[in-house]
Amino acid sequence: MALKCSLAALAQLDQTDPDAVQALLQTCVATLLDPRLWAWALYLTLGCALVGALIGYAKGRWLAGLVWGAALGPIGWLVVALQKSNLPECPECSRHNLPHAKVCRHCGVNLRAAALQSARGQLKRHERSRGW
Ligand SMILES: [Zn+2]
Asked: Considering the chain, what is the average pLDDT of its residues?
């Protein structure tokens, strides 16, 4: 009869028999050191990291998504999905764009000109408030 590493085998174990205890221990160690188990865990971790990186990429935080996904799996995906977006925001429509986008993909505004106007507008308002 082949011994399996399970709670049922542990419950049926005759604890007064050292050979039976040793055999179950060796079976459980062999199960834990099985390369198929480690390959499965590695692929699962890589898959979770990849999904996390994809979720993070949509928020401009792919590295945080990769780390959170690899560390916590689906919980890490949630953590990344609930984080604030790191992508630049359009001053006109307040929606997020890719990091180096020149034109807003939602409303078509030139982002650099809008950012400059916004900075100039802030400077002018600041100068007026100082009496200029
Ligand atoms: Zn826009």
From this structure: 89
